[in-house]
Amino acid sequence: MMRILIKNGRVIDPANGIDGILDIYIENETIEEVGSNLDYSGADIEQIDASGKIVAPGLVDMHCHLREPGQEYKEDIETGTQSAAMGGFTSVACMPNTDPVVDNITVVEYIKSKAASSACVNVFPIGAITKGLKGEELAEIGKLKFAGVVGISDDGRPVRSPVLMRNALEYAKTFDTPVISHCEVAELAEGSMNEGYVSTLLGLKGISRAAEEIMVARDIILAKYTGASLHIAHVSTKGSVELIRQAKKEGVNVTCETCPHYFSLTENAVMGYNTNAKMNPPLRTEADVEAIIEGLSDDTIDAIATDHAPHHEDEKNCEFDRALNGIVGFETALSLGIEYLVKTKKLTIERLINKMSYAPARILGINKGTLSEGKNADIVIIDENKQRIIDKNSFYSKSKNTPYHGYKLSGTVEYTIVGGKFAVREGILI
Ligand SMILES: [Zn+2]
Ligand SMILES: [Zn+2]
For a surface tag, which of 71, 190, 326, 327 has the fewest beta carbons within 10 Å of its beta carbon? Predict the structure, then answer.
């Protein structure tokens, strides 16, 4: 029997409104008791002194790319989940733009079985909205849901046809699963960075905010019309935040996420043709960053996801136009939240943890993100004030595409416990 007693940590459990110095006792895979001065004895109990540290639900990333099957040279389920565990995540939901695409049961089963044999955190696959992500014909949404997907998305591409999107929302409602929308009007998004001063300066073709906002507006209208759950991925503009804020006021069933790069970087990061600052949607301006932070602060933005997007060096070490979009995110997300939201007093640590654990779990309908007694012991222990210098060469991800190399950030992950087992102990991957 595995028994762990975590003593004297600041236990933050947003789902239960808990924030206090408490102990947690774990037996096998289950949280048995949360309370003050717990007294369990026995030579077989592993005791962790969490004084001065934060003990929180294991983080839940509702949007990442693990690249398996098909692009294992960038990442695979084993390395991706190791990277996630080092970042404090105990559950990750992976997008279906693999090769083959997750548009049928066989691929869902493949991911689940690979996860069972090689993942060190829980893996929840997301299924495709359309077959092959081609935007022509709906995937078998009901079958995917029964096979275990936690949402559907054509992430990486927009669903161009409003008819297909409407049908997807209606099916998804029947099967009680969220539709996760990558909002982009493709015809307006042919550039390689935000459209504005910097794109002009660099002579790069820009992508306007309208490319994102038109689709956010369309999908909100369709969600309102169908009553289905719509989740908007990677919100990056002030206008999108305003549209979602208004929709929520009207009672539309819409939620959304942003990513750490949209509250910590602007388009200026592209200067010098830095391909590690190339993403989709692109990094925006200071006014957008402020609006994203405002949206997080007033809960217009429900969740923070990484959009962990590993790419090989050759796919980034090339002309800006040709470089692939995205950055790795697991091993920097929590620290970026602490540095740019908590230290700046925009969010309390309790609210940051909520947006990185319980809130995304609730959106996906998964039984995660809390420290309730009787739940699986998925726990992260964080040293909020310990600083570190980000070194991409120390990442557990196979890929190193980060714009944060050399940044000094606060917040380290000391322990990651997944179902009562150590994935990270004293900062070291097990
Ligand atoms: Zn996307
Ligand atoms: Zn993505």
Answer: 190
How many A from CA of 350 to the centre of ligand 2?
A: 26
Burial class of residue 203 (count of CB atoms within 10 Å of its CB; 0-12, 13-18, 19+): exposed
- The whole-number pLDDT of residue 42 equals 87
| Ligand 2 center from residue 306 Cα (angstroms) | 8
Reported confidence tier of residue 75, pLDDT bands at 50, 70, 90? very high
Q: What is the mean pLDDT of residues 124-135?
A: 98
What pLDDT is recorded for position 259? Answer: 98
Question: For ligand 1, a single-atom ion, which residues have Cβ within 5 Å?
Answer: 155, 182
Helix and strand totals (H; E) in the chain: 13, 19
Report the percentage of the chain scoring pLDDT > 70.
100
Q: Give dist(CA 64, CA 296) in Å, integer.
A: 20
- DSSP, collapsed to helix, strand or coil, labels residue 368 as coil
Pinpoint the alpha helices (H) of 89-177: 105-118, 141-147, 162-174
**Does the N-terminal peptide bond of residue 100 adopt cis geometry, omega within 30 degrees of 0?**
yes
Active site residues: 307
Query: What separation in angstroms does the CA of 20 have from each of 11, 24, 349?
Result: 5, 12, 13
CATH code for the part of the protein at 58-364: 3.20.20.140
In Å, how far from its chain's centre is CA 296? 14
pLDDT digits (tens, 9 = 90+) for 210-223: 999 999 999 999 99
Q: Where are the domains of the chain?
A: 3-55+376-429, 58-364
Q: How far is the CA of 307 from the centre of ligand 2 (A)?
A: 5
pLDDT in tens, 323-370: 999 999 999 999 999 999 999 999 999 999 999 999 999 999 999 999
3-55+376-429: which CATH number, 1.10.290.10, 2.30.40.10, 1.20.120.430, 3.40.50.300? 2.30.40.10
Q: Report the chain's C-alpha Rg in angstroms.
A: 21
CA distance 55 to 209: 39
Give the global pTM.
0.98
Quote the CA–CA distance of 322 and 288 in Å, as a whole number.
26
What residues have their beta carbon closer than 5 A to ion ligand 2? 155, 307
Confidence of residue 97 (pLDDT cuts 50, 70, 90): very high
